[in-house]
Specification:
The protein has about 425 residues and is of the alpha/beta class. It contains 16 helices and 8 strands. Strands 3-2-1-4-7-6-8-5 form an 8-stranded mixed sheet, with helices on both faces.
Length: about 425
């Protein structure tokens, strides 16, 4: 009986370890193309007009900061306007926004809650305005925007991209170990995931904030992204319709990272719920296009949608590995035949070595390239694996609760002085 159990565990581990190894190698190889960054020094005159949309729900503590940073954009003031969606607000968000020269639109809808619904509502109003805009730009209320943001977006749109994602940075990376871990994750993703795909000619992924979409594309496709991860849903929709999301590495948006593990857990669980929901609706459509149209862009996007499954498979592989060595230990004590000796240990050794390299060498190297590595961030990096491990139960929760569409708001309280913040960058 024990021998059969050992054999089953061995076969399962072999399957999962190989699958995880292949996926890990895929992402690792892709990431190498983000090491070299080719700066685009081409100067393109301001041409595109923008409607900047800030989605806000009870954001009186931080809304002034982004509006102040928008005022300082080095882009002609007559080529952009700022709109704030005061979405079901019960605080002073609308008044503060109006006092800071934004056009405020108050939305009251207790049934259709969430950023996706609010944006869809606002897009319809933008379309009907007498003044026409070439593109809309989406921000969150807790953001701070780099001065050159619209200059860089204008450049990418003039190059022919219809949708462009900006660089997602952190405005509070050293507040707590959670904000530090978030920041490390985002910096690595910006370089290893986003920049690498841009260099390869693949589609980037929208990150929820700091992105521009040409108005005509919105009219043609419709927004329709109202799930918990509206950015992922719209990305899939774009790829299915033949569009690729561009990447503007120098168009930087700084957002507030959650301060506590509990806040982080709730936010990331919502992300995983959204991922599970979107992958269930788009994965096979994307894979069908990948096969029938020989579209590597669609394949790459499809693989990205199943992040919760990949994380859970990694966790299962870890559990099976633990069980394997536990049974192996007891079998040796009992002088039983070690049925696990037939496992392909080379895969395990290579996979283990690969993880060590990624965890302790590669990621800090990438952060160093981004000029983000300092002593405090290095200390956070030492405990970063604890943050990474929490993704496993969070992903399981997200997959189990994917049909729960109740939107949960992440409260933002980290206001910063824009002038002081700019001096520190």
């Amino acid at each position: 009986m024990l021998k059969s159990i050992l054999q089953f565990i061995g076969n399962a581990y072999y399957l999962f370890s190989n699958l995880i190894y292949i996926i890990t190698m895929y992402y690792l190889v892709i990431s190498f193309f983000g090491i070299i960054r080719r700066k685009n020094k081409k100067i393109i005159k301001p041409k595109k007009t923008f409607a900047l949309i800030v989605a806000a729900h009870n954001e009186e503590a931080v809304i002034k900061d982004i509006l102040q940073s928008i005022k300082k954009l080095d882009y002609p003031k007559d080529l952009y306007d700022t709109f704030v969606i005061a979405d079901n607000c019960t605080d002073l968000t609308a008044k503060i926004s109006s006092d800071n020269d934004a056009f405020v639109y108050e939305r009251k809808d207790k049934e259709k809650k969430g950023k996706g619904y609010a944006l869809e509502w606002m897009f319809d109003k933008i379309f009907k305005m007498n003044k026409k805009y070439d593109a809309v730009v989406i921000f969150d209320a807790d953001n701070i925007v780099s001065k050159n943001f619209l200059t860089e977006m204008n450049k990418k749109l003039c190059e022919g991209y219809k949708v462009v994602q900006g660089y997602l940075d952190s405005k509070n990376p050293t507040d707590t170990w959670i904000t530090g871990s978030y920041s490390i994750s985002f910096w690595a993703s910006d370089r290893m995931f986003q920049l690498s795909r841009n260099n390869l000619g693949l589609s980037n992924q929208l990150g929820g904030t700091g992105f521009a979409v040409e108005t005509e594309v919105l009219k043609k496709l419709g927004w329709g992204a109202t799930c918990l991860t509206e950015d992922l849903e719209f990305t899939c929709k774009l790829v299915l319709n033949g569009y690729k999301v561009g990447w503007a590495h120098d168009a930087v948006v700084y957002d507030e990272k959650p301060l506590t593990l509990m806040q982080s857990w709730r936010q990331r669980k919502r992300w995983m719920q959204g991922f599970a929901d979107v992958s269930s609706r788009y994965f096979f459509k994307l894979m069908k296009k990948a096969v029938t149209k020989f579209s590597f862009v669609s394949f790459d996007c499809a693989l990205y949608t199943i992040q919760p499954i990949v994380i859970v498979l990694t966790g299962i592989s870890m559990l099976i590995s633990t069980a394997q060595y536990t049974f192996k230990f007891f079998s040796q004590i009992s002088n039983l035949t070690n049925t696990l000796s037939s496992l392909n240990t080379n895969i395990m050794m290579i996979g283990g070595a690969l993880l060590v390299i990624i965890q302790f060498l590669y990621t800090p190297f990438i952060i160093l390239l981004e000029k983000k590595l300092n002593f405090k961030i290095f200390l956070y990096y030492i405990i970063y694996p604890l943050y990474s491990l929490t993704w496993i139960p969070i992903s399981i929760q997200g997959m189990l609760q994917k049909n729960n569409k109740e939107w949960s708001h992440t409260k933002h309280t980290r206001s910063v002085d824009v002038n002081d913040f700019e001096k520190s960058q």
